[in-house]
Specification:
This protein is mostly helical. It has 13 helices and 11 strands. It has helices spanning 13-16, 23-44, 68-82, 85-103, 113-128, 131-145, 178-187, 190-206, 243-260, 264-277, 302-316, 325-343, 374-388; strands spanning 48-49, 57-58, 60-61, 148-149, 154-155, 168-170, 217-220, 227-231, 352-353, 359-362, 367-371. It has a 3-stranded antiparallel beta sheet with strand order 6-7-8, with no helix packed on it. Strands 1-3 form a two-stranded antiparallel ribbon. Helix 4 packs across helix 6 (131-145). It starts with 12 loop residues before the first helix and ends in a 7-residue tail after the last helix. Keywords: Hydrolase. This is Glycoside hydrolase family 88 protein. Pfam families: Glyco_hydro_88 (PF07470).
């Protein structure tokens, strides 16, 4: 494995000087989210929001693309926050839609099955024991297993399996492989866990540069499985660090450490987290690529910051009480959340509204730039719930 540099957090006092979030702040933020979700349900009915907003409003869509699971996840989180049966009833209708989707293989031939089925169906099964949700999630896990390439030991992101132009992993899949760990736990079948662990190890070995920044994607030779090199698809350049990719690593390492408990991964977590924290701008919400700074006239990606907060909160319990970085991470996560709450949640439309503004879906294609996006909404609410109670994660 590449030796990864653990750089110290620069100017730690900018985090430590800020008080931790109060329960009043958390409760007020959750109440604002619930009001928006109730509003969106009236607009959406049983449809789903599009992946990102246009002119600050989501469009209703069918259960397609890789993001719809986040809407159902929001409904389950709202149900946990309120115990309001309206949220549960709509979420369970969504579960039926996800079962139909996997049964008929509608837009599921890719690595994003965890994004689709963990927040929508694993959550439903954990919260209510819904057997349809369990069956759908296990089918999704089986489908994800078909993306595994033994040569290189990774789950292929996109494209026909084994094709040279698509023979690569992406860091986003760090949030998809927990579906396989869950499937192994539910069925007792070790093959799910084995594939997840191999993909995770391959990602850590090749997708993290020596300075602890992230490659978005990493290619392998389809004939031999030998590593070829890292490229970007969403980031600014091959040698920059796409902010959301860095946060997928932060949260992904925390989630997979929960299952595998390899202590060496704690240092890796610290390295990728410190890299992220050291490149936050003045308001502590990341630009869409970590190469950018205040004054560069680039868009923020609030979703990357929300994801990073979830990762820090997940890893918090595994850090020793005497670890000097533990209080720093606690204050940093709290400060980032406070900035999101205060500066990134203003109501901007009477239509289907984002919970979190100022994200970036795909800068190169001009899609969802300085707009809300569904995963940002989900991870923002997940982070709030993590602050509210001892949350039993869906992942």
């Amino acid at each position: 494995m590449t030796q990864i540099n653990l750089e110290p957090v620069q100017d730690p006092q900018r985090f430590l000087d800020q008080p931790l979030l109060s329960q009043a702040e958390i409760d007020e933020a959750i109440a604002a989210v619930i009001a928006k979700v109730e509003h969106n349900i009236l607009k959406l009915g049983e449809t789903f929001p599009s992946s990102s907003t246009k002119n600050s409003s989501y469009e209703p869509t069918k259960n397609v693309e890789w993001t719809t699971g986040f809407w159902t996840g929001i409904l389950w989180l709202a149900y946990e926050a309120t115990h309001d049966e309206r949220f549960r009833q709509l979420a369970e209708k969504n579960v039926q839609s996800f079962k139909y989707r996997i049964d008929h293989e509608i837009d599921v031939d890719h690595h994003d099955l965890g994004f689709l089925y963990s927040p929508s169906c694993v959550s439903a099964y954990k919260l209510t024991g819904n057997p349809v949700a369990k069956a759908a999630a296990l089918e999704a896990a089986d489908k994800l297993m078909t993306r595994y390439n033994p040569k290189g030991e990774f789950i292929q992101a996109w494209g026909p399996k084994g094709s040279a132009e698509n023979y690569r992993l992406i860091v986003d899949a760090m949030l998809n492989i927990p579906l396989l760990f869950w499937a192994s736990e539910e069925t007792g079948k070790p093959e799910y866990r084995d594939v997840a662990a191999k993909h995770y190890a391959t990602t850590l070995k090749y997708a993290i540069r020596p300075d602890a920044s992230a490659f978005h994607t990493f290619y392998f030779d389809p004939e031999t499985g030998k590593p070829l090199g890292g490229k970007t698809r969403q980031g600014y350049a091959d040698d920059s660090s796409w902010a959301r990719g860095q946060s997928w690593l932060i949260y992904g390492i925390a989630l997979n450490y929960t299952r595998l408990q390899d202590h060496a991964d704690v240092q890796t977590f610290k390295a990728v987290t410190n890299y992220f924290l050291n490149r936050l701008p003045e308001d502590l919400v990341s630009y869409w690529d970590l190469i950018f700074h205040d004054g560069d006239w680039q868009s923020k990606d609030s979703s990357a910051t929300a994801i990073a907060v979830c990762g820090i909160k997940q890893m918090e319990g595994f850090l020793a009480e005497g670890d000097e970085l533990k209080p720093l991470y606690q204050h940093a996560a709290s400060a980032m959340m406070r900035s999101l709450i205060n500066n990134y949640t203003a109501e901007q439309t009477t239509g289907i509204t984002a919970l979190l503004n100022h994200g970036v879906y795909s800068w190169h294609s001009g899609r969802g730039v300085d707009e809300g996006n569904l995963w940002g909404d989900y991870f923002y609410l997940e982070a709030l719930i993590r602050y509210k109670k001892q949350w039993q994660m869906y992942w």
